[in-house]
Amino acid sequence: MLRSIVRISRVCQSLGSLPYVQTQLGHPAVRTMSTLPWPFNSAPRDFSLPNSSWSSEMTRLYEHYNSQCEVETEDGEKQRGPWRRLPSYNRSLKYAKGGVYLSKFVQSKARLFTRNIKTAGAAFEYVMFINKEEQRSVCIFQAGHLLEGPPGHVHGGAIATMIDSVTGTHATYLSGPVMTANLNINYRSPIPLGSTVLLESCMDKKEGRKTFISCKVTSADSSKLHTEATALFLSVSVSHLLGM
Amino acid sequence: MLRSIVRISRVCQSLGSLPYVQTQLGHPAVRTMSTLPWPFNSAPRDFSLPNSSWSSEMTRLYEHYNSQCEVETEDGEKQRGPWRRLPSYNRSLKYAKGGVYLSKFVQSKARLFTRNIKTAGAAFEYVMFINKEEQRSVCIFQAGHLLEGPPGHVHGGAIATMIDSVTGTHATYLSGPVMTANLNINYRSPIPLGSTVLLESCMDKKEGRKTFISCKVTSADSSKLHTEATALFLSVSVSHLLGM
After folding, report:
1. How crowded is residue B189: how many other Cβ atoms within 10 Å of its Cβ?
2. Tell me: the pLDDT tens digits for A186-230?
3. Which residues of B touch A99 (CB under 8 A)?
4. Which one, of B214, B215, B207, B216, lies nearest residue B235 by Cα?
């Protein structure tokens, strides 16, 4: 078990962040390492890379931020740029006990909520970038046809899911393992199914164990505000990650 | 189109509620008639009825509330009880235009977010009951293995999705067509994957176009509080439902 913890810590350090971490604590909702590679699979699929379902707008935005992950110096040398792309996988850690009620069957088939549809383009297509210096993140999100709530528009719960995922990953990047304690979401205008939107999050403040993040969901050209939210996360120890 | 509106109104009246309604308005997030039967299909599947994936706890709670939908008088006559079961379908209305960016392809394949997984038990299994006299509702929710966030636990976004669905349906029952304007969610303790929980909502107040609902998510025996939330909905006209 100790080796597992060490391995997790190393992977986290190599990513430069702890994409979010949750367990059973008897208090605020827990976060998991949703973007951590599944350690028993030598070649996990990274869902944050372009596929044929991506719209031209989604691809253009991806290329815009991806090009700033590596920049050239005046001497022509390549070096790390201001942005970093975060990978995204379809499972979180299996180390944790996963709740007293959880059967082995359920645990073995579990899948990250945003990655539970295998068909490309049908549900959540997204990629997230982090700007360490400015302590902000951006997520490019294309909403598939299986996310419907209002006729022709994205379900409020699917929007909340993306806000939780993005702000939680961002908070973990800033503060290490965290749990979601509060999400406060104001819905301003509906998002048409099939469209590409931007989720931009920034850190408001840190106070002890608390990390406060705010998030805006806008149209791809940032001209229209769809949703805005604040989120509060509580830091937890690594042992919580393992359900110990 | 007028005939469509009349038909929709009749269906809504026959249900005794307008399970939630949303369109594109350029302001707060819209709600749809998520539990309205698809009018072009003569035998839509009602997903709120028991299936083989339901746990014994889910089935027991269903039978408890379902038995109170019809009661016997002292004379042995049957009459409507205090509770009503609400059906749940996998599509919302197709009448609405569905957003300026929406292609016919996307629109034709769209599916209600909570019903986007066909395998029974894999994702959202739920049934909702309304108590008209007490103006409260209860939803029995079994969280499948594809809703994972934290290792072995339900994703915060999936919990938000159920809260949005339940409070939105409740608000529509009380106030007619509404849109979600705000969700404020406090996560108190994580929900193990595979477990059955209760979502209980009650109306706090109505002020003009605003309906305020609060919601608690607890363990099946109500002993443990998992999540609590408040939600604000704005009433809209029926024409908004059609994207006019």
Report:
1. 20
2. 999 999 999 999 999 999 999 999 999 999 999 999 999 999 999
3. 152-153, 190, 192-193, 195
4. B207
Distance from CA of B142 to the nearest CA of A (A): 12
Report domain extents, chain B: 2-241
Q: What pLDDT band is residue A237 in, cutting at 50, 70 and 90?
A: confident
CA distance B88 to A53: 30
Region A22-30: mean pLDDT is 44
* CB atoms near residue B15 (< 10 Å): 17
Q: Which of residues 7-46 of A touch B (CB under 8 A)?
A: 21-34
Task: Give pLDDT, residue A154.
Answer: 94
Which residues of A are less than 8 Å from B57 in CB distance? Answer: none
Four-residue CA torsion sign, B84, B184, A228, A65: negative
The rounded distance, in Å, linking the Cα atoms of A30 and A233 is 9
CB contact under 8 A, A99 and B153: yes
Alpha-carbon gap, residue A211 to A201, rounded angstroms:
12
Q: What DSSP assignment string belongs to A181-243?
A: EEEEEEE-S--BTT-EEEEEEEEEEEETTEEEEEEEEEETTS-SEEEEEEEEEEE--HHHHTT
Residues of B in contact with A141 (CB under 8 A): none
User: Please, are residues A226 and A188 in contact by the beta-carbon 8 Å criterion?
Assistant: yes
Name the one residue in this structure whose structure tokens are 């769209």.
B110
Q: How many CA atoms lie within 13 A of B224 on its CB side?
A: 17
Q: What is the DSSP string of A88-119?
A: --S---S-S---TT--HHHHHH--BGGG---S
Task: Answer yes or no: is pLDDT of A23 > 90.
Answer: no
CB-based contact, B99 to chain A, within 8 Å = yes
Across A29-33, B3-7, B172-176, least confident range: B3-7
- Kindly state the average pLDDT of the residues A92-109: 68
| Helix, strand, coil percent content, chain A, rounded in steps of 5 | 25, 30, 45
Cβ(A216)–Cβ(A197) below 8 Å: no
CA-nearest residue to B104 within chain A is A152
Question: How many residues make up chain B in this entry?
Answer: 244
Q: How many CB pairs under 8 A join A and B?
A: 305
H helix count then E strand count, chain A: 5, 9
Q: Give the pLDDT confidence score for residue A102 in this predicted structure.
A: 72
Superfamily of A2-241 according to CATH? Hotdog Thioesterase (3.10.129.10)
Tokens 């982090």 belong to A130
